[in-house]
Amino acid sequence: MSTVAFIGLGAMGSRMAMNLHAAGHKLRVYNRDRAKTKPFADKGIEVCDSPAAAAKGAEFVCSIVSDDTATREVMLGAAGIVGAAAAGTIILDSSTNTPAMSREVAKAAAAKGIVYLDAPVSGSIMQAQGKELVILVGGDKAAFDKAQPVLLAMGRMVRRIGDTGAGATLKLINNMLSASLITAVAEAAQMAEAAHLDLDATMEVLGEGAAGSRVMKTKLPKMLKRDFSPQFQLELMDKDLRYFLALAQELDRPAPLASLVRSQFQAARRAQLGKLDSCAVFLQASGEKPKT
User: Fold this and answer.
1) Class assignment of domain 3-162?
2) Is 141 designated active site?
């Protein structure tokens, strides 16, 4: 088993890191909010004071933080991973970043003999808990092959999508589609309520019909029950849509649907719904206020 540094112990990262520990990897962890490291310290896992300290001596470094800004800090900052990791270290970055950010870090890492793989994940808290994540990887194939035991300790499906930035690109496409489906489901939910349909029957039929999907089966019940406890925060989905639209501009491709969907998520975030689940876009469209 390998020595793995894990940076970022939020809702997803904490579960991914615990799965690495359960698989027998020697784990070292860092999180900006030290309180989140307590469950790891309680298991005798080494808690480090910086990303650099965690990366020293590790064969693999996993990271999952909120955005490009956070990634630049933990990767390239004064106490960052790239400055501290030894040549030959493989970085697995599961943050949802722009492809440009992935390429920037990969270039800096390569200059030090380090391999950076963008490795964002598809799935939410439940999938992270159960090692059911789908992991989308961009970067060097030999490093991808070497990282299989680490990646498969966290996910059920691991695929190399292409060169550096390919994993990040597909993740943005995936989240644009997810956000679009959530927005459509929110509109459908409001119509079903307004028409006074039997909501249990509605959920069952829509879940089994042509439009049935994981989004339909998980988000429609949350909307109808007014359960907006976060599985994936709305403000993070808004960020991902913003990144997708920047990519569309970079690639000179029209994205009218994504632009419309992003306007709904942006409005919901500005209405102070950002910490709720992404399906709280339902509240933005309906004008309801969340229950406190």
Assistant:
1) alpha beta
2) no
